[in-house]
Amino acid sequence: MQHRVDNKMKIQGINIHFEKYIKDPFHPTMVLVHGFLSSTFSFRKLIPLLTSHFNIIAIDLPPFGKTEKSTRFTYSYYNMAKVIIDLLQRLNIQKAYAVGHSMGGQILLYAANKQPDLFQKIVLLCSSGYRKRSHPTLIISSYLPYFSLIIRRRLKNKGVWKSLCDVVHDHSLINQEMIKGYVEPFYDNAIFRALTKMIRDLEGDLPSEELQKIQIPSLLIWGEEDRIVPIEIGKRLYQDLPNSDFISIRNTGHLVPEERPHHVSNFIFDFCLT
């Protein structure tokens, strides 16, 4: 059985939370990167399956999960990619497999573009792609007093149940454990101030010309009913990434690690271990 260790490491001036699951020190390392408004919690069903062949590092990206919610941090894709790179290097990991879900997939693409020799293979689960920077009007509005309260109110009004219904195709999977796990990080009001800064800092997704430079073998796994990042985005990424494979899963939405952990783990094993 795998042993979980919770860790904190100061990177770029803030405390980054990450979890380590070490079952066999001779296993290769796999890093897991979650998506927007999520945390390592989203991989809780996948991790026990992956530890049969990998040692796992699951990171809470700033400002999510148990990572510090600072307004000093620059919340750009580039900077978050650098957090992953710095963490792996400081843990003396010279080569890692990597899995990124949604926004985490885009951050992995940034990391792969910046430090390709650090990654053996990458797996993108419903990765975000081709999004532009926030509209200038929204960026300017984010400087208004109490803008963070507007973000808080909008998220509260939508509610966790409705948000999960948007990302999970089979609503019968939504239970109290899932609701509690996704809502818990938002009890800290500091996250709303950090999200306000993220609106200003976040640049656009990598353009096609940068994606086409990434030679790392990549596997794209998509839910065919994904309403957050439609499957057409996955097919476009597949065309732009020169060394990639594409798999879609029927009757599955955006949150594939929750909905299809066994399918996803088997696809990962077939791709990474051959």
TrEMBL record:
It comes from the Bacteria. Pfam families: Abhydrolase_1. Residues 28-261 form the AB hydrolase-1 domain. This is Pimeloyl-ACP methyl ester carboxylesterase.
